[in-house]
Specification:
single chain; about 270 residues; Immunoglobulin-like; four-stranded mixed sheet; 8 helices; globular
């Protein structure tokens, strides 16, 4: 149970990323990777891919892939209208906060960098935020007192931008459309998708290249799967009235000093994308 609780943020964030970016074009409730989706009205109550979204703001959102390079987040001057940009890593930790409470509502550019990057930010970047994982989830709220505020907020939303660092200072147009990954299940919410996973499915997703847990954790998982599928264990499952003496005495394999599910949380440096 500890291993499940430990891995839950990574798994549900990875499923949310896959579902949110499984779109041919960016829209209100889904968006291409590295592009903003922009909700033009208060959140529809039937929208369940993310739970409990506030209904006093208009939201914009983007999943950003920082594997190859950082991205510059740019925002316009909201002329005092309350706004906040928050960025989450795959642990759901907030690692960036921009807006009314922290940096102000003036226009500005901010660099979002992944764990691999070690360069120098451009001189017109106000601040650099470091994400410990490959993916970051950028969420922008702009306060709306009523529907009468929507047209003004739409203009502000349209000025939000994400630019690859390599394209900064140059003309840049993000892709208008891409092919959709057919493997992504859009028939259920991310929460239900995780809830319906078997233990094996959950932990293999937990150790996928996008969540990037430690190699020892992967090895423990392989050992655990081999132990669970061993002939002695299979015999016990087929005939529970004749338990195998081997199955009753053979412990699950160990991985160093950790248990077979690697209950100890790895160091953050080990969990960073490589």
């Amino acid at each position: 149970m500890e291993a499940y609780a430990f891995g839950f943020p990574l798994v549900i964030m990875d499923v949310t990323r896959a579902v949110t970016t499984a779109a041919a074009k960016s829209g209100e409730y889904s968006a291409l990777i590295n592009q903003f989706g922009r909700m033009r009205t208060y959140v529809d109550p039937d929208f369940k891919n993310v739970v409990r979204i506030s209904r006093n703001s208009l939201w914009s959102f983007a999943f950003v892939d920082l594997d190859k390079e950082p991205f510059v987040y740019s925002q316009p001057d909201t002329r005092g209208r309350y706004m906040v940009m928050q960025a989450l890593n795959m642990w759901t930790d907030d690692f960036a906060s921009v807006g009314s409470r922290t940096t102000g509502t003036e226009a500005g550019n901010f660099l979002i960098a992944g764990p691999k990057w070690s360069g120098t930010p451009p001189p017109d970047v106000k601040e650099t935020f470091r994400c410990t994982k490959r993916y970051a989830w950028v969420l922008v709220q702009i306060a709306a007192g009523s529907a009468a505020d929507f047209p003004e907020i739409h203009l502000l939303q349209d000025k939000l931008a994400l630019t690859p660092l390599s394209a900064w200072g140059k003309p840049y147009t993000p892709p208008a459309s891409v092919s959709v990954d057919p493997r992504v299940d859009l028939s259920v919410t991310p929460y239900d998708s995780v809830r319906l996973m078997t233990g094996e499915m959950f932990f293999w997703r937990h150790c996928s290249p996008t969540t990037r847990l430690t190699r020892p954790t992967r090895r423990c998982l392989r050992n655990s799967r081999s132990w669970a599928l061993s002939p002695a264990r299979s015999s016990t499952r087929r005939n529970s009235t004749r338990p195998s003496s081997r199955a009753s005495t053979e412990p699950p394999p160990k991985c160093g000093s950790s248990s077979r599910l690697a209950l100890t949380r790895p160091r953050e440096s080990d969990c960073a994308a490589m």
